[in-house]
Amino acid sequence: xxxxxxxxxxxxxxxxxxxxxxxxxxxxxxxxxxxxxxxxxxxxxxxxxxxxxxxxxxxxxxxxxxxxxxxxxxxxxxxxxxxxxxxxxxxxxxxxxxxxxxxxxxxxxxxxxxxxxxxxxxxxxxxxxxxxxxxxxxxxxxxxxxxxxxxxxxxxxxxxxxxxxxxxxxxxxxxxxxxxxxxxxxxxxxxxxxxxxxxxxxxxxxxxxxxxxxxxxxxxxxxxxxxxxxxxxxxxxxxxxxxxxxxxxxxxxxxxxxxxxxxxxxxxxxxxxxxxxxxxxxxxxxxxxxxxxxxxxxxxxxxxxxxxxxxxxxxxxxxxxxxxxxxxxxxxxxxxxxxxxxxxxxxxxxxxxxxxxxxxxxxxxxxxxxxxxxxxxxxxxxxxxxxxxxxxxxxxxxxxxxxxxxxxxxxxxxxxxxxxxxxxxxxxxxxxxxxxxxxxxxxxxxxxxxxxxxxxxxxxxxxxxxxxxxxxxxxxxxx
Length: 479
Prior knowledge:
11% strand
């Protein structure tokens, strides 16, 4: 147990260091992504801080698995560079025992992340999504600057040449009030004035002095033009509330649900699929019943008898009228056949349209199910990557030591990029129902797990990890 505790202690520092570095990278990405929105909306600092804390929820779900690979490389690389790996081997400690403490630590991180992804992360994502929607709905921050046309107020365009930020005094003012689209705006001109903001009523007040109002009230008829000269005039612009209004959104996306909630959603969607299939079966049976009924001779006689009902009151034809009666009978039969065929064709078209619509509904439901299944498996596959990265990083660091750390770190970055690309690509393919959600989410873990066991086996047998002779044909290798 002494060896195990010693290796675990060597793990803690590199794990914290790699976690902090990767977290810093994610924070920079967060700042670049949302800084424009925060500045444009004039969001207060405590709201920005709350958004950042909630964003850490989905960050940590990726940061911890990413940090295990460089932490493993640093921990075992330091042990190998100090010849401690050689000393352990000399005392009879096998490679599997050296890797065991890292495996247990990765197993603990995997279990903790699974619980975190199922219970903490959905609520964090839900609150973050609600907050981002509220920030997006917030009215933008307005900065009233001189020598600029200000269009931030709906229905108004404002311009003033000079502004005193301390007293709120403004000079050479022009205000264009847009009444309706296509009409000429009402123009207000003033020599000077004062700006006031009534916080309680959310009103921006202009107290203007020595000016004119030019307006055309009825349409654009020049005969209705009106010019008003004023000494003092007060104009209010209402609804200038720039505060953030918090709302609670009940709808949850797939990343805002736990496994139990997504499984319940899948069950409800499957019930809708069964309902769509029952409608398809009912429509097909109804159409086939009509087709096979028309093939029955007794059914055709009944249809012909129904067609002859209007002529049943007529006296039977005699003598030379027999040919006319037969001709009318043939016409009735043809008319019955054509009407029945028309009804069958019309019913076939309606049935086909119904079946096509139900098939599209079923396909949409199946895509929803696969999307939920992808998220369910993702909650388990990404934490499991901690184990895979420890198993693949330990033999590389042990065999290469500090002398090959640059190569080891380069390989680890390459491995993680391949893992991430496979994970994202698999998710897109599974959402489009090209591959199974299980294969999409667990395929990278399976592939890198096989690579990890291969590297461990070769390292335990004191063989080169990447032997060119095994990768290149013998004839090319000899040359």
